[in-house]
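A common beginner's mistake is to predict each chain separately and then try to dock the pieces by hand. The better habit, illustrated here, is to supply every component at once so that their relative placement is modeled jointly.
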Amino acid sequence: MKLTKAQKYGLWSGIAVLLLVWLAAATPLGPALGIVKAPLIGTDVSGIGEAPAKWRSIFGIELPGGLNIVTMVMTWAIMGLILFFGFSATRRPRRVPGRLQLLFEMFVGFFDQICADSMGPQLGRKYVPFVATIFIFVFISNWIGVVPGLEEPTRDLNTCLGLGVICFFVAHVSGIRYKGWKKYLLEYVEPVGPLSPFFLVINVVGEIGKTLSHSIRLYGNVMGGAVLILVINQLSKQLPPLSLFLTLWFGLFVGLVQAFVFAMLAMTYIAVKVGD
Amino acid sequence: MDLAALSQIAAVAGAALCMGLGAIGAAVGEGYSAFKAVQAIARQPRASDEVVRLMLVGMAVAESAGIFALFIAIVLAMTNPQAAGIVQVGGFLAAGICMGVGALGPGIGAGLAAGSACEGVGVIPENNALIMRTMLIGQAVSQSTAIYALFVAMLLIFVVGG
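With all components supplied together, the output reads:
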């Protein structure tokens, strides 16, 4: 079988990425060079579940809750990355698209289709930017953890909760905007009847629970994967194939699926609030 | 027996119960959705892309209960928690049972929803956006109980009696 140039390019770059990940994450070389997230052998895992490194004070000013500096830097880096690729893909659009432009067109078209199917063509188009942005941010956040030395911002509960709260506000504000106050508020006492006060409590708790589960699902999956890789590396003394497989499974596959689920849930919550 | 040994026993037992029980729900639910997806594709092979996408998304949601159980089990088993008092020793064991049993229902329930969704897309592939939307909403709501279990388990480990 003869491969085309593009296929060869894809194949070799894929192999290169695999080798890089393996080298960094799986060999004893990684910790020695200090390029792995934590020294894997003899790791003290007692810090699991806590947010990454914090700054307690800045320029001598005490910060009450601390500042999650790693998360912040990574978030800004990811935003820069998205902006860079977005600009370079759309700066000079061509009628016959290049590789990057084609990728972005497919990406936008895919979300355009999903949103239009779910919310109707006119309303759907208004929310494509939001849903696609949420997806691309979470997606790159999840995948960036595969690169040794970098940490996923989504591993920090604060990032996930922040995204969840953003989705919450967007959904509710859109609901008020498209339905009006009365209809929006009336939804909370449905089904209307003598038991309405009771349903009010249930509905309010349900709204809060929806946002919490939305964020914690992402956090739990990313954090669970990261912790699992750490622990199994430690137990297996970094048996290369296992470590590589786990990194790719949790980093790439679970990361992609969870990002998609997160974006779809955000879209669905909006669709329910604006729909009849 | 001293407190350190007791708390270690409780944490290890809690971790085992948590992951052992927590695996059941997700496994049953995901198996069911795979079974329904296979049936749907067998009936309607041209819808295989939609069905596989829906199955993966549905399974990912159904699995989160299992992931929560895994998270609690790892926290219990690997962090070697030290109880401050005898009450917290019970808390470690209780946290494992809480998350393990709590993951049973949502895992099965979300899997059932994913299975029915795959079945539905197999019947009318054009409806897949609507079906996915309904499935995700239902799964997200049915999963809130797993979130409650996770919260209570964390409370039991880190707060109660500490």
